[in-house]
Each structure stands twice: as C-alpha cells, then as structure tokens.
C-alpha cells in the first residue's frame, strides 16, 4: 500500500519554496530601543587657576549645557551665567542664567502652593540639574539654604512664602531682584528697566515662553517675562519680572513663564 504521508520530490520542493517566500516577506523583528541620552557636549568646563579671583559682579561665563537653539540634532549649547554676588571668604558666587532656558508653569495646576512645594522647584533640582551638568560639574553646586521669609517677598503681595528650603538651584526672590539688578536705569522712552530684561532662548520659546516683539535687552534680543520664587497676593499666585522689568503677580499654572535658574557655585576645589 502506498505511504500517503510521504511527499513526492516535486511537492517537497514546492513546500520549501513557499516557506522561503513567506520568511522573506515577514517583517524583521524590531531592535530594542536604545536608552535616550543627552547629546554629547564635549569635556566638562574647567576653569584655570585664578578664575575665581578674576570674577567681578556683572561678568558672564559659561558653565554646563542645555538645549537652546531648538535644534536637538546638533547637541546642547553652553549655558551663559551672569555673576550677581561674590562671597570671597566662601569662595563662591551667586549666578543667574543670562537667558530664560525654558518655558513652564510655576506649578502644574492652580492651587495654593509655595516655593517649597511647587513643581518648578522639583524640576530645577532634579531634571534640569542632571541634564544640564555633568557629575563633576554638579560637585561645584553643593546647595545652600534659600530664604523664603517675609523679607524676600514684595510688601504689596501678602501671601506667605512658606518654609526655607535647601536648594542646589532656585529662582530669585522679589528682594533679590531689587538688590542685584539696577532699578534706576531706564530705557530712552522710560518704559523699561533694561538690567532686568531677559530674552528666552529659541528652545524656551518652543516650550511656551512668551516673548512679545516689543522690549529689547541690551544685546538687542526681544525680552520675555520670567518667574520669581516669591508668592503673589494669593497662595495660588507667584511673582514674576515682566518683559519690561517691573514685578507683578500671576496664577501659578500660567504656562508661558520663562525660567532663569540661579545657584551658588563653589570654587573651592573640584573642577573649578
């Protein structure tokens, strides 16, 4: 009796050809996605001997890096910082970014909040800190106590500032703006305080930072408004520097505010 389980040579060849055709048509297995890393930005910043001694209030220098030109494929750009204060005995300097580096709300939703509990503080001391600075650079930002007492706010706005906080990065207060920025110099039309103006980067504008084409910084860039850590006239409001320089208050979940990080950099050893 003929064995029906055996295929003829012709049928075996046909089955093999069909199998190879199906295999060729099947989609290739997807390769696992690589973990996303920030674009390489070169060697960490290193300041030579005597750098701290050469610093002056108002001077600028670069330190760290962050997306700024809005072109993610060309890597991060160096962050430019302005020196606001110098603590000689402590060998440290208070600095603020020259430009607003991103746009985001003070807090994700409208509610009573302080600097201690707002989402912007968490972003600065977590996501931004570990994105903008290498491990070696972070050693130069050890952190310090941030004064959130009544003396740091604007007397016109009565909301409490909350507890003092330990921060590596923070926003300036109303009183610090008045202390460190020249409030006497106005532009030719007496409409703006140029020393307080800051332009958002191109990336910050793509993230929502509002920048009307009206007031210009000393460098000729259009200025936008930027957040302060001080509370406004209500717990659900925070203060900000307007695009022409005065301090106002606005709801904390306003998404168009610019962010100018501030920090104390320690020059006592490490890479500095």
Short description:
The chain has 272 residues and is an alpha+beta fold. The chain is built from six helices and eleven strands.
Protein architecture, described:
The chain is built from 6 helices and 11 strands. It has helices at 9-25, 51-54, 119-132, 135-138, 174-180, 202-206, and strands spanning 60-66, 77-87, 92-97, 102-103, 144-146, 165-167, 226-231, 237-241, 247-251, 258-259, 262-266. The strands form 4 sheets. A 4-stranded antiparallel beta sheet has the order 1-2-3-11, with no helix packed on it. A hairpin with a 5-residue loop joins β7 and β8 (237-241). It starts with 8 loop residues before the first helix and ends in a 6-residue tail after the last strand.
Whole-number radius of gyration?
27 Å
What class do helices, strands and sheet pairing give?
A: alpha+beta
Bin the strand percentage.
Answer: 15-25%
Strand order of the largest sheet: 1-2-3-11
Q: Give me the strand/helix succession.
A: HHEEEEHHEEHHEEEEE
Number of domains: 1
**What sort of overall outline do the alpha carbons produce when their principal axes are compared?**
globular
Strand elements, count? 11
Arithmetic mean pLDDT? 84
Our measurement of the CA-to-CA distance between the termini, rounded to an integer number of angstroms, reads 92 Å
Q: Low-confidence spans: pLDDT under 50, at least 5 residues?
A: 1-5, 22-45
**Strand count, sense and closure of the main sheet?**
4 strands, antiparallel
Number of distinct helices: 6
State the helicity in percent bands: 10-25%
């Amino acid at each position: 009796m003929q064995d029906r389980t055996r295929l003829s040579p012709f049928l075996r060849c046909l089955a093999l050809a069909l199998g190879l055709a199906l295999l060729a048509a099947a989609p290739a297995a997807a390769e696992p996605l690589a973990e996303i890393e920030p674009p390489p930005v070169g060697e960490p910043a290193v300041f030579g001997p005597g750098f701290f001694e050469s610093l002056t209030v108002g001077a600028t220098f670069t330190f760290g890096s962050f997306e700024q030109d809005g072109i993610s494929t060309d890597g991060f750009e160096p962050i430019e910082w302005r020196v606001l204060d110098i603590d000689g005995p402590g060998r440290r300097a208070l600095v603020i970014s020259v430009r607003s580096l991103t746009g985001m709300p003070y807090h994700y939703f409208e509610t009573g909040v302080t600097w201690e509990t707002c989402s912007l503080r968490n972003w600065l001391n977590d996501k931004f800190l570990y994105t903008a600075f290498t491990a070696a650079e972070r050693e130069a930002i050890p952190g310090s106590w941030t004064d959130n007492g009544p003396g740091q706010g604007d007397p016109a706005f009565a909301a409490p500032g909350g507890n003092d906080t330990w921060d590596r990065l923070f926003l300036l207060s109303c009183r610090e703006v008045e202390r460190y920025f020249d409030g006497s110099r106005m532009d030719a039309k007496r409409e703006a305080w140029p020393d307080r103006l800051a332009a958002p980067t191109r990336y910050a504008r793509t993230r929502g930072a509002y920048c009307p084409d009206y007031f210009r910084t000393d460098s000729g860039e259009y200025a936008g408004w930027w957040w302060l850590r001080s509370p406004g006239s209500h717990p659900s409001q925070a203060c900000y520097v307007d695009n022409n320089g005065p301090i106002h208050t606005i709801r904390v979940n306003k998404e168009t505010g610019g962010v100018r990080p501030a920090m104390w950099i320690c020059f006592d050893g490490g890479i500095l």
